[in-house]
C-alpha cells in the first residue's frame, strides 16, 4: 500500500475537512471535467474520473473509489487528524486527507490519484505529501 496526504496547514483556506467535503470536491471535479468534455465534444468526464464512490464508512472516516474500467481498479480516500507542534511551538491538531493505493491498484490508479491529490491540495491550499515522499506546497507562504 502507498499513501499520499493533503495536510491542512495554518495558511490553508480550511482547517477541518469531512468526508462529505471531499465527496463534494470530487463532484466538483467531475462537473468541471464534464464541462471541458462538452466544449471539446468528447466524453472527457468518464476519462477524467472513471470511478464511482463506494461504501462510505463514516465511523472509520473513509470511502473508496471503484472503477470498472480496464486500466483502473480502486483508490481509498480517508480523512483524519493528527497532533503536531506548529511553527510557534504550540501543540495543535492538523486535519488531513489520506489517499491510499491498495494492493489491487494499477499504474493508472496511481496516475489518477496524483491528479486528484494535486486538485484537492490546490482547492484547499494545502501541503501535499506525494506517494514518492516529495512535498508540494499549494498555500501562500510568507
UniProtKB/TrEMBL annotation:
Q: Which Gene3D superfamilies match?
A: Rbstp2229 like protein, Rbstp2229 protein
Give one Pfam family, short name only.
DUF1885
Task: Name the InterPro entries for this protein.
Answer: DUF1885 (IPR015062), Rbstp2229-like_sf (IPR036294)
Source domain of life: Bacteria
What is the protein named?
Answer: DUF1885 family protein
